[in-house]
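name: query_chain
kind: protein
chains: 1
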Amino acid sequence: MGPEQFGLLPRLGQGCSLGRCRPHGCRRCLLKGCDGWFRPGPPQARYCSSRCQQAARRWRRWRAAQRYRASDHGQQQRREQSRRYRQRQRQVRAAAETAPCEGQRAAPNPQDSSGRPCDRPGCYQLFVPTPRCPDQRFCSCSCRQALRRVRQREIRRRERRRQGMRPRRLRPRAPPGSSP
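structure:
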């Protein structure tokens, strides 16, 4: 009698409800905030569900935007955009002087964009790298360890494939000498 018979192993796309489930073949979701246990279908699965995959895609788009805004070209584009906005505002104010208006909406506070984004999918934390480690890529050691765990697993799999090992079967084999 194994853990599958008692329902202790999570199915694909489901997190482990016990929180202490660490059987062979299960892994944690890489997305920050989820960290659920799941049994992967494809061997390189990083996320427990399609919802986590979509959240990771949104995070990648956000991170690309952050990187672009920090580049010289992105900053130049933003300056030109601001210049065009100020020009439009001057035209609006000139038109408003001729017609009186009731009030003005308060300008939204811009999000603080100082710092670098964390490299872990789903982590929107911005941080300032320390002078001791200017190439810092993660906001915390838990984010660093989560991505390290995934990358080490993928490296081990690649090494096994290079050495000519065959992947494990998903179904258990029948004992030798027995007929199906």
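note: The first helix runs from residue 50 to 70.
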